[in-house]
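User: Second chain of the day. Same drill as before.
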Amino acid sequence: MSLSEQPGPAGLVISDRFYLRVLDRFANDEDVAVLALGLRLMAQHAPGAGGGEPIGIHVQELDYLPTAYQPEAAALALMEWFGAEFGVEVPQVGIAFDRASGYTVEWPDGH
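Assistant: Same format as last time:
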């Protein structure tokens, strides 16, 4: 992931302070939606969220094993990165595993 201060033409506005751009050509709508959810959950905790120039979060590539991938994993990784980058606490996310259905994620605030 990288930071940018200029919104790109395909940027998805998350808040008045952050936007998301997914540059991975293999990312689908579900990937983008869960990445946006992860960024939305984190953006509300970022310092100065109400002012300043917009900050772009650019996801260059999603790197994963196709046989075990669930899009929620990308959002969780983005949340961890965001927490480290901006020094904010990552909200608690419930994760359960069932062999038949895979991982289930319980997002904070009922998302």
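The beta strands are 2-4, 12-13, 18-22, 55-59, 94-98, 102-106.

User: Great, on to the next one.
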